[in-house]
Write a structure and sequence with these properties.
five-stranded antiparallel beta sheet; Immunoglobulin-like; four-stranded antiparallel beta sheet; rod-shaped; transmembrane helix; 283 residues; signal; Fibronectin type-III domain-containing protein; single chain; 5 helices; membrane; transmembrane; binds 2-acetamido-2-deoxy-beta-D-glucopyranose
């Protein structure tokens, strides 16, 4: 069928030029997130009026390794066949994250098809990295604990398995201020404790995923805010009880010492008084 169409195209080349060649898709671009890849393209609309029958598009891919083979040995795989939309979802096409591919698209009508337009695509290099799939913030004993869930692939696999250099940048700041006055923490961990914070203070946190190799950074996660607990004591009720006991003990001790001193003084004064009395008696 394809061969036949090609053959007829060759035969009617003069007719094609006479009718105006079916223009090829333009401006190929990929909209990507983790392992979701959607190819978009434009097509010159002004031509559509001249084209009879429905206009459709066909999108295919080929690995770069395959592209080095002779043209007749290249096995382009079709992902979208004769679709009317101007985009094609390659997410489930089975592209290897570390592979390099050509993606191509052409326009078709009942009679004609355009030539192909291609774009090269390497998911590892080109696909956007997503923010953490979730961020949880809790106030624990005056510290803040952040639990970060990795961004996920389209098969719910952690993106860390595909991009092992992935890490997080955590931005945190005090509530009335904004993030520009905050601090940034770089980590590979999924559970992070922020300590040395002010007590009874609202803090906000947001997290970004990053990969250094291709210098990728995701958008930020949603901002989460919570209030730190009072002071730094681990169990405040317990601490207050101890402070009370220590205070009472100290007070009792001080009173005892003062009492003793007063008693000593009084008894000394008494002795002197007694001696004086005795002297008076003697004279
Ligand atoms: C391709 O993109 C350029 C620049 O954005 C635009 O001017 C042009 O109209 C686009 N082509 C089509 C067919 O839409
Ligand atoms: C397109 O179809 C219309 C009728 O639907 C016909 O009048 C016209 O001649 C056709 N144009 C071309 C270029 O085939
Ligand atoms: C991709 O397009 C470019 C320019 O249009 C062309 O030189 C190249 O051969 C094409 N590659 C493949 C694999 O079709
Ligand atoms: C991934 O997880 C979400 C939510 O847990 C679920 O709805 C979806 O079906 C999962 N997808 C796959 C491919 O396992
Ligand atoms: C990495 O990207 C950031 C922002 O996107 C940019 O400021 C920085 O210069 C880039 N670094 C390298 C080595 O490309």
């Amino acid at each position: 069928m394809k061969a036949l169409r090609c053959f007829s195209l060759l035969l009617s080349l003069s007719v094609v030029t006479a009718l105006g060649d079916l223009s090829r898709p333009q401006n190929l671009s990929l909209q990507t997130l983790n392992t979701q890849y959607v190819l978009h393209w434009d097509w010159a609309d002004d031509q559509q009026t001249a084209v009879n029958g429905t206009l459709t598009f066909t999108a295919q891919y080929l690995s770069v390794l395959q592209s080095r083979k002779a043209a007749h040995k290249q096995k382009w795989r079709t992902v979208c066949a004769d679709v009317s939309e101007r985009h094609c979802d390659f997410t489930d096409a089975g592209l290897n994250y570390w592979g390099i591919y050509y993606l191509r698209v052409r326009a078709n009508t009942a009679q004609w098809f355009s030539s192909w337009t291609n774009i090269s695509f390497c998911p590892d290099r080109d696909a956007d990295l997503g923010p953490p799939s979730s961020v949880k913030l809790t106030s624990v004993k005056g510290d803040l604990e952040i639990v970060i869930a990795d961004p996920l692939s389209s098969t719910n696999e952690s993106m860390k398995t595909l991009a092992p250099d992935m890490h997080y940048l955590i931005q945190y700041w005090k509530k009335p201020e904004d993030y520009k006055k905050g601090k940034v923490l770089k980590t590979k961990n999924n559970v992070v404790t922020l300590s040395e914070l002010d007590g009874s203070t609202w803090y906000c946190v947001r997290v970004q995923s990053c990969c250094d190799f291709y210098n990728k950074t995701s958008v930020f996660s949603d901002t989460h805010c919570t209030r730190t607990e009072d002071g730094k004591c681990s169990d405040c009720e317990m601490d207050y009880r101890w402070i009370f006991i220590a205070g009472v003990t100290a007070a009792v001790l001080v009173l005892a010492v003062i009492g003793y001193i007063i008693y000593k003084r009084n008894s000394k004064a008494g002795l002197i008084q007694k001696r004086d009395d005795w002297r008076d008696d003697g004279e």
